[in-house]
Amino acid sequence: MIIRGFKTAAVAAGIKSDGMLDLALICSETPAVAAAVFTQNFFIAAPLILTRRHLTASGHQVRAVLVNSGNANAATGEAGIHAAQECVEALARGLACDPRDVLVSSTGVIGRPLPVSRIQTAIPDLISSLSPTNIDLLARAIMTTDTVPKIATAEVGGARITGVAKGAGMIHPDMATMLSFVMTDAAVTHPELDAALRYAVHHSFNCISVDGDTSTNDMVVVLANGACGIHPPAGDFREKLREVCTELATAIVRDGE
After folding, report:
1. Which residues are catalytic?
2. Rounded CA separation 64/181 (Å)
3. Are the beta carbons of 236 and 199 closer than 8 angstroms?
4. By residue range, what is the domain housing residue 237?
5. Residue 1 domain-assigned?
6. Which residues, 6 or more positions from 256, have their beta carbon under 8 angstroms from its beta carbon?
7. Full-model pTM
8. Fewer CB within 10 Å: N-end or C-end of the chain?
């Protein structure tokens, strides 16, 4: 399902050793309202620290989300935050937007430096590959131990919602080792979006368990750009977002190690 006003892309940047897709981009043609929930782990990975800062600095207005797999950029200290910032700035230059309007997420091996130069080198190809029909590539690029991509869609009053997720091993209540990115072309205010996301996550991702571990990198982000011009009733939107998150959570459990 094409979500109006959104494009996605994925490339193999050489972060993974097997040559598989490992760098993905979500881009909204206009600033999108963003809401996010993060890991409950005491230790928070560098990408989450930077993303939280950017959400606050931008007033929850987002143009893009940069995601890599194969390297978690966790347990990397201040150097990890600087590495994530360098990647964000390279992307922002390519998109001609403020770096604070870019969120960043990573998943993979913990404790290794992020290969910044490989990511920066791949960004031009990533941007040139942006398309409204690349959702499957996005879902594949964020996979680590997953065996299948995870995608869910729904409609509410003419507005569309599509989400992708990765999980598999190390899944436990409160989103352990799980990433999900949801896009909607509905016109939704930030308070409505934030409340809907928290409700949806509480009734989906926070209910699942595979092996009891926790993670430093968990993140669920939803972006609403209003491109369809429809403002669905808040309750209807909340339920449809829950349906998408529940379908993704179920797919994670089904694919769990």
Report:
1. 177
2. 11
3. no
4. 6-254
5. no
6. 167, 168, 169, 171, 210, 211
7. 0.94
8. C
